[in-house]
Amino acid sequence: xxxxxGCAARALELxxxxxxxxxxxxxxDAGADSVYIGARAFGARLAAGNPTEEIRRxxxxxxxxxxxxxxxxxxxxxxxxxxxxxxLIHELYAAGADALIVQDMGILEMDxxxxxxxxxxxxxxxxxxKARFLEEVGFSRVILARELTLDEIREIRARTAVELECFIxxxxxxxxxxQCRFSLAVCGRSANRGECAQPCRGxxxxxxxxGRILERDRHPxxxxxxxxxxxxxxxxxxxxxxxxxxGRLKDAAYVSNMTAYCRRALDAVIGSVPGxxxxxxxxxxxxxxxxxxxxxxxxxxxxxIEGRPEDAVFPLTPxxxxxxxxxxxxxxxxxxxxxxxASLNNGDGICLFDRRxxxxxxxxxxxxxxxxxxxxxxxxxxxxxxxxxxxxxFLAALSRTPPTRRIPVRVVFRETRAGxxxxxxxxxxxxxxxxxxxxxxPARSIAKAAAAIxxxxxxxxxxxxxxxxxxxxxxxxxxxxxxxxxxxxxxxVARLDEARSPARPxxxxxxxxxxxxxxxxxxDHRLNVSNRLARRFYARHGAVVxxxxxxxxxxxxxxxxxxxxxxxxxxLGLCPxxxxxxxxxxxxxxxxxxxxxxxxxxxxxxxxxxxxxxx
Length: 615
Fold this sequence. Notes:
Blueprint: E1 10-18, H1 21-29, E2 34-38, H2 52-63, E3 68-73, H3 82-95, E4 99-102, E5 117-119, H4 128-137, E6 141-143, H5 150-159, E7 163-170, H6 182-187, E8 204-208, E9 213-218, E10 225-227, H7 232-238, E11 242-245, H8 252-272, E12 276-278, E13 283-285, E14 300-301, E15 323-331, E16 336-339, E17 349-353, E18 359-368, E19 371-374, E20 385-390, H9 392-400, E21 404-415, E22 419-425, E23 431-437, E24 441-442, H10 446-457, E25 465-471, E26 478-479, H11 482-500, H12 532-540, H13 550-553, E27 560-564, H14 568-571, E28 589-592, E29 597-603, E30 608-612
Helix pairs in contact: 1-2, 1-8, 2-3, 4-5, 10-11
């Protein structure tokens, strides 16, 4: 949308995940303004690394729409990896990556190409002082912690001019990113090295100090999926300009669906507020109705956006339950009766919670109206809410007719003294022109001649363009060969590509070392220093590191391994600030599984819960 007179439009960016090249293309086609993708090493999703050549191909595709590609190198690095990381960064810059997402501050000590750096959410950005520091040392953007409230985001915006990016959809981590060592402690696999085993999704019993079980065999740390899409306008007004979808381990169907869902909502905000604009080009056509519950859903939460979360934890399961479809009204020998209005199809995945609260699932083998014949009819019980966690028809529609994205162009075709000319203009006003000499053979019908020109210049399949209009106002009827018109069209497309290429916004930036004081109090393992360059970075900024990252030494007993804003004690009705009264033995509490007990500590002033490793 155009800005007011004399004002530049404020571009809002939708950033989507890419597990691989195919997912990245799917994200761009569904309307993403940017895609973030793991490099072949050093990304926070070890299972989602990609060869540099694949990133080059993705960048080439994205750049045709003036969309961007960000390469994630957001793990901490070891000394032996520094040279390889630097070489990889230069590779990615040469491949066309538009920015790097990083956590390790040692990268700022390297000899880098002039590529923008974004501070990963793994960098633990929860206040304005930290964001301002990161801006002053050279970061172009900071990706905010997911635990922030709207007021905390406003406070950060007030203290810094750096670009702010926040997550608006997808999976949530139970603990503060970058400060979670739960997986490292219990599995030897570090989230800060891209190897999180997700013990926060595990099954535990909640016990008091005397061993009394307050909650048995549940998932007390497992969070629902984030959905801040209804709060996009609030986030825009708070100063956020980039909106991120989580999901670098998800498939192309999830990426297409979620990107289309968020794109539609963000476009509605852009269309309702003067002075806002999209960050990339192209109009998206959909053959489906986007619905986040139809590809992967643990249920949705606004998490901390309005304060401390009330509904964030879903203790029954960490798995996708999908979309509610009705209630099991009656159970027969080989089928059940579904009430609720939704229709199921053969091959749909369905699930329910049994009388003990356990998730049970199966597939539909046959559907006859309300009579549903499942593969395993034994799991059903009358009165249970039914969910569809695999929507075969929806997935088939996504696969059969995925989103398409085209840049509308206006084509003007005219007769010249020596032949003919064609001009194509995009919505930004970027234009390309071709001229071709040709013999002018009279024809009988000027209308037929114009129609032939319009038909040939509308054939833009296989390009990023779609002809919004073809103006072929001839002064006399002329016969033009199809081969001539096709050749002109191909050359016009090539020249428009060339004309649009230098018009793509760039944000090259070199890092200039300085001595801005580090504002934080921590000097220990919480800085995640695991190499000599990171140690040198903090020393130059006045922070002498007294303890290295725990990835180098292991996790000792007594270490806080997870800090959460979703509180077990509050959910169980034991919060002392809310009048909760448990038995005298209710504090402290513990999470217990078959192998270990983890102590829970509660900071009521900050309304935070900490998981302490007991060894």
